[in-house]
Amino acid sequence: MKNYTVGIVGGMGSYATADFFKRLIDAIPAEKEWDRPRVIIDNKCTMPSRVRALLYGEKRDELVAELTDSVRHMMDMGVSRIVFACNTSHCFIPDVIENIPESRNIILHIIDALGRDLAGRGIGSVGLVATEGTIDSGIYSETFRPYGIHVTAPTEAEYTQLRGFIEAVKQNKTDDAICREFIAFIDSINEDAVILGCTELPILYKACTDRGIFPAKAIYDPLQTAIDIIVKEYADAPAV
Q1: Do 146 and 205 reside in the same domain of the chain?
Q2: What tens digit of pLDDT does each residue of 11-57 get?
Q3: CATH number, domain with residue 117
Q4: Which of 32, 105, 117, 184 has its CA 20 to 30 A from that of 212?
Q5: What is the domain extent for residue 157?
Q6: Do 93 and 120 share a domain, yes or no?
Q7: Positive/negative CA dihedral, 92, 98, 104, 106
């Protein structure tokens, strides 16, 4: 057993949280259950909308308080790493760190981690599919700028279609029609590499590939980057 615990701030949405948890434990092969790290999940699906908080300031203070509360409880439980299983929620991480300064080196910023990874691969330009809140916030462009990476984002005219993709996952309705529409949308982006910048979208992407529907693009997922970091840190963690 190792002295390493993962905290997941989830419920944004619940299927995305469950998918991240499954992918994380699948990434750490184990003969016995105790060969994997302890994982604490706060599936706080009652949190206010992250998108509406960004676009309209709706319940913003309440949202920050809820995120702060989740992080504080996880830190009280001695977590080694905290992952927000929601891209849009990363726009509020500076507020959480302001409330809990000691969380700065524990919260794993999945967007920044992906930026470092893409820069290391020599990728200088990417397309983005995400919520309108994430897109309008500019968090990907701002985070990637120091790494010299340009981000091509969808237009406002495409927001309704993007919302439909995300809601299909939240409602567990990833059928053939939505899969073909999603892959066609990805292939319409004028970039060779595309980021799945909403944690529901990897679930939809897997539903597509399970049906044999593949894009003509390289696909990158910030949650997978987070998993790769956690796997390495866990491997290097000291034994209890």
Answers
A1: yes
A2: 888 989 999 999 999 999 887 888 899 999 999 888 999 989 988 99
A3: 3.40.50.1860
A4: 117
A5: 110-220
A6: no
A7: negative
Q: In total, how many domains does the chain have?
A: 2
Looking at the fold, whether 89 and 137 belong to one and the same domain comes out as: no
Q: What is the pTM of this model?
A: 0.93
6 contacts 229 by C-beta, under 8 angstroms: no
The dihedral of CA 59, 61, 63, 65: what is its sign? negative
**Averaged pLDDT, 62-71:** 97
Report how far apart the first and last C-alpha atoms of the chain are (Å, whole number). 6
Rounded to whole angstroms, the Cα distance separating 182 from 73 reads 37
Q: Which of 217, 139, 151 is CA-nearest to residue 185?
A: 217
Asked if the bond preceding 10 is cis, omega within 30° of 0, the reply is no
Q: Determine the longest span between alpha carbons in the chain, in angstroms.
A: 53
